[in-house]
Design goal:
mainly alpha, Four Helix Bundle (Hemerythrin (Met), subunit A), two-stranded antiparallel sheet, globular
């Protein structure tokens, strides 16, 4: 029997060196549409449901939504650094500790609204980039590797879908409606 790893319901991100313009456009569409898809996924969930972990030992639905906002804010800032500095070394953050700060107990709609605005602005930025700009990169301090903006676009399209699948898979598993 083929079972899906609850940590990676859509599979792990598989980075590539290059992406075609059509692939990047499709990724940008997924980034732009994520806020609405995320809002629909949590619509009508009770506090008890929002506080249900998507897997044993995993984050709650509420924490997942707040994490997406935190992560995508960092990605936006990394994008700006990459465009305005030469191969900047980015700052990493402790996702687990960020998932435990006080606002992660608040209504996930707070983060959905932030993601709506952030993604609208990020999309304008991404759509305005030249092919040359998409090759600009930052350095990840943990790996020492250069990460291009085109890879960031693909990775965050995947990242949004990945966490959305955590929520939608849990809803199916728990039979919580659509």
């Amino acid at each position: 029997m083929n079972t899906i790893d609850a940590r990676y319901p859509i599979g792990k991100f598989e980075p590539r060196e290059n992406y075609t313009p059509d692939e990047l456009n499709e990724c940008m569409v997924r980034i732009l549409s994520l806020p609405g898809r995320l809002e629909n996924a949590i619509k009508g969930l009770s506090n008890e449901q929002l506080d249900t972990p998507y897997r044993e030992g995993g984050w709650t639905v509420r924490q997942v939504v707040h994490h997406v906002a935190d992560s995508h804010m960092n990605a936006y800032i990394r994008t700006k650094w990459t465009l305005t500095e030469d191969s900047p070394v980015i700052k990493v953050y402790n996702e687990k500790k960020w998932s435990e700060t006080p606002e992660t107990k608040s209504a996930p709609s707070v983060s959905v609204e932030l993601i709506k605005t952030l993604h609208a602005k990020w999309n304008v930025l991404l759509c305005g980039l030249s092919a040359e700009s998409l090759q600009r990169s930052f350095v990840h301090p943990d790996t020492g590797k250069n990460v291009t903006l085109q890879r960031i676009i693909a990775m965050y399209a995947w990242h949004g879908d990945h966490h959305l699948a955590h929520i939608t898979s849990l809803k199916i598993k728990m039979n919580w409606g659509k």
